[in-house]
């Protein structure tokens, strides 16, 4: 099974409900030792930082064409803890309700679960804006997308 590293970041200006964007970087090493990379990004007119963090992971997973072992590296505890602390399992069992009431962004969490289904995932958190080269690269992708002129009208839903 191919091993892929997925770095992600999301950004929003005027969070919540301002323009935002996501950036994702897929990397894998082929059998000859060559590094392959693919950058993904898009911007939206009206969104939130958390929605963009989710969209970065979704876009990366949806870009994969076959089942892979995917190491997702994100500066979003919202995303990483949902999987590492098994919050998402609890949300699903409780009908998308958490300790504080209804879970936000259910449409994207469901889409993320569908995108994740064929893969083996492992999530790691990194501190944002701390000099991690790939995280900084994804941050540039996300902020450039958020500041762009070709923003999509709405965050994609299920």
Give a verbal description of the structure:
Helices cover 34% and strands 34% of the residues. Strand 1 and strand 2 form a beta hairpin. The model has no long low-confidence stretch (mean pLDDT 93). The longest helix has 14 residues. It contains 5 helices and 7 strands; from the N terminus they run βββαβααββαβα. It is globular. The chain has a 5-stranded mixed beta sheet with strand order 3-2-1-4-7. It is of the alpha/beta class and 158 residues long. It starts with a strand and ends in a 12-residue tail after the last helix.
List keywords for this structure.
158 residues; alpha/beta; 5-stranded mixed beta sheet; two-stranded antiparallel ribbon; 5 helices; 7 strands; 34% helix; 34% strand; globular
Give a brief outline of the structure.
The chain is of the alpha/beta class and 158 residues long.
Main sheet: which strands, in order across? 3-2-1-4-7
Q: Report the average pLDDT across residues.
A: 93
Q: What's the assembly state of these chains?
A: single chain
Query: How do the SSEs run, as a string of H and E?
Result: EEEHEHHEEHEH
What structural category arises from helix and sheet content?
alpha/beta
List the helices and strands and how they pair.
Blueprint: E1 2-12, E2 18-29, E3 35-47, H1 49-62, E4 68-74, H2 77-84, H3 87-93, E5 97-98, E6 101-102, H4 106-116, E7 120-125, H5 133-146
Parallel strand pairs: 1-4, 4-7
Antiparallel strand pairs: 1-2, 2-3, 5-6
């Amino acid at each position: 099974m191919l091993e892929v590293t997925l770095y992600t970041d999301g950004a929003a200006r005027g969070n919540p409900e301002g323009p935002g964007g996501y950036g994702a970087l897929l990397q894998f090493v082929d059998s000859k030792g060559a590094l392959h990379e693919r950058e993904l990004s898009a911007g939206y007119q009206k969104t939130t930082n958390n929605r963009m963090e989710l969209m970065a992971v979704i876009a990366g997973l949806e870009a994969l064409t076959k089942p892979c072992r995917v190491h997702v590296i994100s500066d979003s505890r919202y995303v990483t803890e949902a999987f590492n602390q098994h919050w998402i399992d609890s949300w699903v069992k409780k009908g998308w309700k958490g300790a504080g009431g209804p879970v936000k962004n259910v449409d994207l969490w469901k889409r993320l679960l569908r995108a994740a289904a064929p893969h083996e995932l492992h999530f790691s958190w990194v501190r944002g804006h701390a000099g991690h080269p790939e995280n900084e690269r994804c941050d540039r992708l996300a902020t450039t997308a958020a500041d762009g002129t070709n923003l999509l009208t709405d965050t994609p839903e299920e």
